[in-house]
């Protein structure tokens, strides 16, 4: 018996962290998604076609940030990004998702942020969930990669690769994650 595997269709990336201690500047973490095309100058790890991050969505509405926290206050996941992979145009073959610490003059890193964690899920099924202890000295990290297979199905690969860069530089280099 055979079946057609449709792959992932709609996934949600949730990010949570505890607020800063009283009197300390707030920690602001952001989910960032980068899309790549098959013909990205022959390098799907190169420059992204576009980025989606705080207060933005993809040009076609398939990737959106539905919740954006600047302090970590609240219950559950403070930031949530929805990726409607099945609706992405065929020219997009890869989506990389990361998390960046907005750096204040003090230069905050993941190790400065209490109880930070990320969850990737499709429907009610968790695909991955983890903290940032392994990249505690970094300012940004890639946490997930979605790839369109030749038949059109989307697959997921869990990653946790740290970067020591600001949000602008991270957006340009996050596609190099392996």
TrEMBL record:
User: Locate the TerD domain: which residues?
Assistant: 5-169
Question: Cross-referenced Pfam families, in alphabetical order?
Answer: TerD
Identify the CDD domains for this entry.
TerD_like
Gene3D superfamilies found in the cross-reference section: sav2460 like domains (2.60.60.30)
InterPro entries reported for this sequence: Stress/Tellurium_Resist, TerD
Q: Its family?
A: Belongs to the CAPAB/TerDEXZ family.
Q: Could you tell me what this protein is called?
A: TerD-family protein
The protein's organism comes out as Streptomyces silvensis
């Amino acid at each position: 018996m055979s079946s057609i595997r449709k792959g992932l269709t709609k996934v949600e990336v949730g990010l949570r962290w505890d607020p800063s201690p009283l009197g300390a500047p707030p920690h602001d973490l952001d989910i960032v998604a980068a899309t790549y095309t098959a013909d990205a100058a022959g390098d799907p790890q190169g420059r992204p076609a576009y980025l989606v991050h705080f207060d933005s969505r993809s040009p076609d509405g398939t990737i959106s940030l539905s919740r954006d926290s600047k302090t970590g206050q609240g219950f559950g996941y403070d930031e949530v990004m929805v990726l409607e992979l099945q609706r992405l145009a065929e020219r997009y073959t890869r989506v990389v998702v990361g998390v960046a610490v907005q750096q204040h003059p003090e230069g905050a890193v993941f190790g400065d942020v209490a109880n930070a964690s990320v969850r990737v899920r499709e429907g009610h099924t968790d695909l991955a969930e983890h903290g940032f202890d392994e990249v505690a000295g970094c300012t940004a990290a890639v946490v997930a990669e979605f790839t369109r297979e030749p038949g059109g199905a989307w697959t997921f690969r869990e990653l946790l690769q740290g970067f020591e860069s600001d949000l602008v530089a991270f957006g340009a280099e996050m596609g190099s994650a392996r």
